[in-house]
Amino acid sequence: MYDMDTRKRALALVAQGRSLNSVSKETGVSRAAIRAWQTRIDPLPLMRIQAEPCVRCGPEPEPPTDPAAYSYLLGLYLGDGCISAGARPGYFLRIACANVYPGLIDQCTTAMRAINPSGKSARVQAVGYVSVVGYSRHWPCLFPQHGPGMKHTREIMLQPWQQGIVEAHPWEFIRGLIHSDGCRITNWTEKIIGGERKRYEYPRYFFTNKSDCIRDLYTGVLDQLCVGWKQAGRYNISVARKADAALLDVHVGPKY
Questions:
Q1: Residue extents of the structural domains in the chain
Q2: What sign has the CA pseudo-torsion 96, 97, 99, 103?
Q3: Exposed e or buried b for every residue in 21-36, given b needs 16+ CB within 10 A?
Q4: Chain mean position to CA 120
Q5: What's the gap between Cα 77 and its chain centre?
Q6: In what order do the strands lie in the sheet with 91-98?
Q7: Spatial contact of 182 and 222, defined as CB atoms under 8 Å apart
Q8: Could you tell me the pTM of the whole model?
Q9: Using N-to-C axis directions, what is the helix angle for 20-27 and 4-15, rounded to 10°?
Q10: What are the pLDDT digits (tens) for 113-122?
Q11: Rounded to the nearest 5 degrees, what angle is found at the Cα of 212, between the Cα atoms of 206 and 215?
Q12: What tens digit of pLDDT does each residue of 190-226 get?
């Protein structure tokens, strides 16, 4: 943790017109930290860590108490989430959410508070997005997919207890994945009927992720739900058939 004087000094140097790179070299503070301080100079209100009960690392591991929220948060984490070590014996879970989706930010915040053993989360504004952040000793217990390197460079598999939650709450998992790395768009086509050109519009869902493992998790649950899908490029999964898109409209819908 950097003290407030260090933070103010770094921002003062930036205010003089200095580049983030030069300020970083002079102060020893990372450019990412300085950039974050430009939108929020105060430390996150989650740094004080207490002895928190954890359903996973106790003598008799159990699933999270809100499995539906966990299934949704798991989808978000696999898409746009990361876990990093804090300055004290604990970890930050961060989920990046675009500013244009305030409803998504609210849903992510609610799910993180439901799953975090401390019951807390915070929002950190950055350029173009909000990081929903939770601090706990137990994020690696709850998300054992955490590990060194980017997710698409290593194998990602669900533990049996996670698989059981996803099978019981598949739509929450699909919603989390689409809310992180997916979208709903409106496609259109034109047909000539009775000599008249008519335009038809139809919804289509895309999910895009570089990880073969995460795409396989997504399509595996779609198969469980009897939702048809097609590969659309190297990293894209498309759901376009009318009945299948209608199912996603009911259970997922566009991000907002």
A1: 4-37, 176-251
A2: negative
A3: eebbeebebeeeebeb
A4: 17
A5: 4
A6: 81-85, 91-98, 129-136, 122-125
A7: no
A8: 0.78
A9: 140
A10: 999 998 999 9
A11: 35
A12: 778 777 888 778 899 999 999 999 999 999 999 999 9
Reading across the β-sheet that carries 182-193, which strands appear in turn?
Answer: 182-193, 196-208, 236-239, 230-231
Q: Which tokens sit at 65?
A: 């108490």
Scan for tokens 């790179």, then name that residue.
21
Number of Cβ within 10 Å of residue 153's Cβ equals: 10
Q: Which amino acid is at 20?
A: L
- Write the pLDDT tens digit of every residue in 142-194: 999 998 889 999 999 999 999 999 999 999 999 999 999 999 999 877 778 77
Q: Which two tokens stand for residue 162?
A: 């996670």
Q: Which residue has the tokens 């533990």?
A: 159
Q: Are 210 and 152 in contact (CB under 8 A)?
A: yes
Find tokens 């009775």 and name the residue.
Answer: 194
Residues in the chain: 256
CB atoms within 10 A of CB 94: 17
Structural class in CATH, domain 176-251: alpha beta
In order, the DSSP letters of the chain are: ---HHHHHHHHHHHHTT--HHHHHHHH---HHHHHHHTT--SPPTT--------TTTSSS----S-HHHHHHHHHHHHHHEEEEE-SSS-EEEEEEEETT-HHHHHHHHHHHHHHSTT---EEEE-SSEEEEEEEETTHHHH-TT--SS-GGGS-----HHHHHHHHHSHHHHHHHHHHHHEEEEEEEEEEEETTEEEEEEEEEEEEE-S-HHHHHHHHHHHHHTT---EE-SSSEEEE-SHHHHHHHHHHT----
Can you read off the two tokens belonging to residue 52? 């928190």
